[in-house]
Amino acid sequence: MRYRILGATQAADDQGTPVPVGGRRLRTLLTVLALRPARPATPETLIDEIWADDQPQDAPAALQALVGRLRRALGRHAIASTPGGYRLEATEDDIDLYVFERLAHTGTQALAAGDPARAHRTLTEALALWHGPALADLPDRTAAARPEALRLAATRARAAAALDLGRAPDVVPELAELTAAHPLDEPLHALLIRALRDTGRPADALAAYES
Q1: 76 falls within a domain
Q2: Is 9 left (phi over 0), alpha (psi -120 to 50) or beta?
Q3: How far apart are the first and last CA of the chain?
Q4: Cβ atoms 148, 134 nearer than 8 A
Q5: Bridge pairing between strands 2-4 and 10-12
Q6: Where would I find the H helices in the chain?
Q7: CB atoms within 10 A of CB 195
Q8: pLDDT at residue 63, as a whole number
């Protein structure tokens, strides 16, 4: 099985055929389990993540029923019961978040090593894994902060690689949009100024600098 949590939570079999996971709480359960592949999540953690302050009267029984539904959707061997709780039988290579992190690290290393072509290719592959806000089915957005920050860093690095490859016109629109969304991100602004300068727009580059 493959799991996507960089956006609304999705599952697919090994051939890529989508496996329906219906219901917000069911997707929340799968998201929490996918964040710790091959490691158990305690019932207390799962109950808190799924229901927060609106817990059912018999929360352990409700969780057990929810796990049963998820097993029926994914296959009964997809989720193991352990003394510490429940564990998703998956590796990091089965979950898009961890594949993204590996590719993003490889891409940024390639950029630092002076290989912008490999960096751009690898970072593009990494960013293509996203299909929405990270961990979109988690009510508590705290855990999403780190992957979202890594996404922005990967986007910056890909833009830098594109500039090194002489593709400034390709990245100006994206950088303009990103600097508007992140007005305090100085590295993004520096990339936009460089891109404008490299496209022969010194007046726009100066205006971006002064803003």
Answers
A1: yes
A2: beta
A3: 48
A4: yes
A5: antiparallel
A6: 24-34, 43-51, 59-74, 96-112, 116-127, 145-164, 168-181, 186-198, 202-210
A7: 27
A8: 96
Token digits for 210?
């002064």
Q: Does any domain span residue 135?
A: yes
pTM: 0.91
Interatomic CA distance for residues 88 and 29, integer angstroms:
10
Q: Which residues of the chain have pLDDT under 50?
A: none
Domain that holds residue 47: 1-141
Decide if 167 is inside a domain: no
Which H/E stretch holds residue 130? Answer: none
At 108 the pLDDT is 98
Q: How many domains does the chain have?
A: 1
CATH number at residue 80: 1.10.10.10
Which amino acid type is present at position 143?
A
Query: Is 168 domain-assigned?
Result: no
Alpha-carbon distance 185 to 178, whole Å? Answer: 9
Amino acid 2: pLDDT: 96
- The residue among 111, 3, 16, 112 whose CA lies nearest residue 26 is 3
